[in-house]
Please model this.
Amino acid sequence: MKIALIGTGYVGLVSGACFAEFGLDVTCVDKLADKIETLRRGEIPIYEPGLDSLVKRNAAAGRLRFSTDLAAAVDQAEVIFICVGTPMGHDRRADMRFVHGVAAEIGRAIRSPGKVVVTKSTVPVGTAQQVKKLLAENISGGHEVHVASNPEFLREGSAVEDFLRPNRVVIGAESEYAANQVKALYRPLYLIETPIVVTRLETSELIKYAANGFLAMKISFINEVAALCERVGADVKQVAKGVGLDNRIGTKFLHPGPGYGGSCFPKDTEALLKTAEDAGGDFELIRAAIGVNEKIPARLIARMETALGGVKGKKIAQLGLAFKPETDDLRESPGLRLLDALRAAGATVVACDPVAAAGARKLYPDLACADDAYAAAAGADAVMLATEWNQFRQLDLPRLKGAMRGAHFFDWRNVYEPAMMAAAGFAYQSVGRR
Ligand code: NAD
Model:
């Protein structure tokens, strides 16, 4: 089957390459000519483990193409995925300009009946119906078109594996034809018995937000537990383990730290809250999860201020900028919120990140970035671990301390053990542990 994906970002590119790996004939479209040229040269514009070889292999096999020509790609495809961004708008709702723009463009390009247009972007409830309306308004010739919703659950950093081995595939559709067309694309997953959940359009759209909302809530919950641990002398790592080993709860997403970030949770929790409000209700748990998350960086910076006797004029080595390891994505990174707060308070920050430093320099042209943790720590008063890259998990502690002028280590990802850090001579602080 021939398919087209409109929007070749983290989701569109990974999905396109994986669908090609499933044996489908795929065209990935983007409006950014530079990005398409880069991909045609065989270079990958984002950092995502395993993606490079997947793209090269499928492009070489002729199953994966890149184009700026949306109309031609739509004309050839039977199923068209909308994979453009849905960032947070000024009113904290999902900004739907890109989705609506692309839906109208697809409508203008449709010249035959039976195509299925699928929203893979994370979109508020009701979007598929809006897409249907926009398609109808723009199709000339009155061709019949179907819409479907197929939210994406991949995680940056393990996106390829997540797409090839998902926990489930969710498909929302009005017609059996649309549901079956989308289902057929995932046929290789039948072999690994992946559950396929077929629902109404609105249900499918809400599943994505409810999933992200729940995960964000779990993170805010453990961060609240961590704050309580600090007050009562408990150890949050052990609390999380003891709680998470209960099958009903699970150990995942129970790691306290500088709060959730990235391109999804912050905007999706806000959009979920707005959806609830717009529907005449409220979502108090999500409101609380957002409130808790927003307060965390200030709490951590206050601890640094106290420990260092003020951060003004201090030199801080920041280890990690990306919102999590194994990605170059800086969108809504808690590391950047900490960086902003430290710089605003007058600290000098030297940062280090294995892949996100180049992107960070575009946002902060004056940011000093070092090649490794030891160079970042040279002459520093303190080290602050903000992203738990593997490179930062096995630091040579005597070497690190030897490079510094101070001895403070703020481990905001709980990578190290307090006793080990004390033995290495650090004034060590972490989250939710004495
Ligand atoms: P992204 O910003 O990385 O990519 C979006 C791409 O769409 C960009 O390359 C942009 O140039 C392109 N685009 C915008 N308008 C276009 C147009 N008119 N024609 C062609 N291309 C156009 O975004 P992303 O991270 O891939 O996210 C896309 C959607 O998927 C969002 O709704 C997001 O919430 C959702 N999602 C993201 C992830 C993730 O981990 N990044 C996971 C699951 C779901």
Q: What stands out?
A: Residues 6-12, 29-32, 35, 70, 83-86, 98, 101-102, 121-122, 152, 154, 156, 263-264 surround nicotinamide-adenine-dinucleotide (CB under 6 Å). The longest helix spans residues 201-232. The chain has a mean pLDDT of 97. The longest strand covers residues 2-6.
